Amino acid sequence: MNRPPRFTFAGVDLDYSTSTITGHYEVGGRCFSETWGVGDGADLAAPGVSAAAKWLYLFGGVSYYKAMVPPVLDTGDLALTDDDATFLRTFYLDGLGEFSYRNGLSLDDLEVIGSRFQAPDPVHLATREPRALVPFGGGIDSIVTVEAVKRAGFPASLFICSRPGDVFAAIEAPAAVTGLPILRATRHLDPQIFATEAEGWWNGHVPITGVLSALAVVTALAHGFTHVIMSNEHSASDPNVVENGRAINHQWSKSETFERGLRAVLGASMTNGPEFFSYLRARSELWVGEQFAHMAPYHPVFRSCNKAFYQRSSDRLEEWCGVCDKCCFIDLILSPYLSREELQRIFSGREPLENDDLAPVFSTLCGLVPMTKPFECVGDVTECAAAASLAARRPDRRGNAILGSLTSGAAIDDATIAALLRPIGDDAVPELLHRNG
After folding, report:
1. Where are the domains of the chain?
2. How many CB atoms lie within 10 A of CB 297?
3. Percent of the chain with pLDDT over 90
4. Against a cut of 0.70, is the pTM above it?
């Protein structure tokens, strides 16, 4: 399809009576609107909300931009600093890296136009008692984060976002186990975008975690929270493939690059605002798996299977499918720490490691075949190979064909495994949470 000349950010409305924010966008002669709700009792007039809502609005346009991928982002009446414009371009260019790679498109010509201004002095927010808002998806990463926050004694609430009137059983069940209150936000996509196939528009993965991160920050400001604690681990920064020198990362909006970028633009507009960081930034998925293995109350109810999160509720599975990349990864990363019997129970008798037909999936996860890392939220090949090496040593896995194949091709030494169970690199986690989490 022909690319229209520009994508225009046509305005953003804050409705104080309904605690909703609506972003308006124009592209190719079409107008789109997306609405976000930030929960009952929100104060959209609170200091800092409008500054954070700007980024929710800018990020939210990505779902409509990708339909026609014009070469220009026009911010219209919304003036940006040079640093703002640079980060916005990065969000669209790298956040849509997988989308452009899989569709055979280049977005390298992307340009951000519109008014520029020198940043005013940041708004200073009053000091408040610590309260953490923890975005929660029901998987092992967010469960480990929640339990760390609870141990540290942070008063906390879960942040859960869905379409109005819709809930995911795979999130609700482990959320109930946390015992924490839930602050519910909503995201209502423009229904026109669901006609993508009929309209002949481009389709593919968008950096949705970036949109949800901005929504969580807005929600935190509107409800007086002091921390937004994400659950994005170290390997979320690891690309799936490098093409022509460009790293393509399915999890780019979970990466350290995104986290630092959002912290920077928020910090330029407000001081003493919500601390935005990932508790797991310096941790491997192997470490997360080890921690989660001790959290037995969650084992019967958590579900990270992709088929539990289909948009249409009628299509969602109520159990693990046992065959998708995510099922295989979760099984593998827990297999050093949970028994074969326990994992068979978790997967309702369909444990992936016991299905020899899935050997190619595990080989890909461990980097034994010349393929890209799966475009899923999975760990890197070293983490996966380390998990296979540890699992193969368990007496209850003796003779497992898949593990035998993996360890013969990708054995990982004990020093590498030990390093994966220690912090890797830096993070922005406060000392209180490091010490007690």
Report:
1. 295-420
2. 12
3. 88
4. yes
HEC string for 43-89: CCCCCCHHHHHHHHHHHHCHHHHHHHCCCEEECCCCCECHHHHHHHH
Q: Are 234 and 424 in contact (CB under 8 A)?
A: yes
The vertex-115 CA angle with 1 and 11, nearest 5°, equals 65
Instruction: Please name which of 247, 283, 238, 258 lies closest in space to residue 425, comparing C-alpha atoms.
Output: 283
Contact 386, 364 (CB under 8 A): no
Task: Give the whole-angstrom CA distance, residue 424 versus residue 281.
Answer: 8
Task: For residues 145 and 231, give the distance between their C-alpha atoms in angstroms, rounded to a whole number.
Answer: 6
Compute CA 140 distance to the chain's CA centroid, rounded to the nearest angstrom. 13
What is the token pair recorded at 120? Answer: 């005013």
Q: What DSSP designation does 238 have?
A: S
Q: Which residues pair with 183 in a beta bridge?
A: 159
Residue 112 main-chain phi, psi, to 5 deg: -105, 120
DSSP, res 424:
-
Neighbouring residues of 209: CB distance < 8 A, sequence distance ≥ 6: 232, 251, 253, 254, 258
Longest dimension (CA), the chain: 66
Taking each helix axis from N to C end, the angle separating 325-334 and 285-292, rounded to the nearest 10 degrees, works out to 70
Contacts of 219 (CB under 8 A, 6+ apart): 38, 39, 42, 133, 159, 183, 185, 225
Cα-based angle 320, 323, 326 (whole degrees, multiple of 5): 70
The predicted-structure confidence for 212-231, as pLDDT tens digits, reads as follows 999 999 999 999 999 999 99
Query: Which tokens hold the place of 151?
Result: 């141990």
CB contact at 8 A, 325 and 378: yes
Q: How far apart, in whole angstroms, are the C-alpha atoms of residue 357 and residue 350?
A: 12
- Nearest-CA neighbor of 427 among 280, 286, 265, 249? 280
Q: What are phi and psi of 171, to 5 degrees?
A: -95, -40
- Of 298-312, 390-404, 412-426, least confident by mean pLDDT is 298-312
Alpha-carbon dihedral sign for residues 401, 404, 409, 415: positive
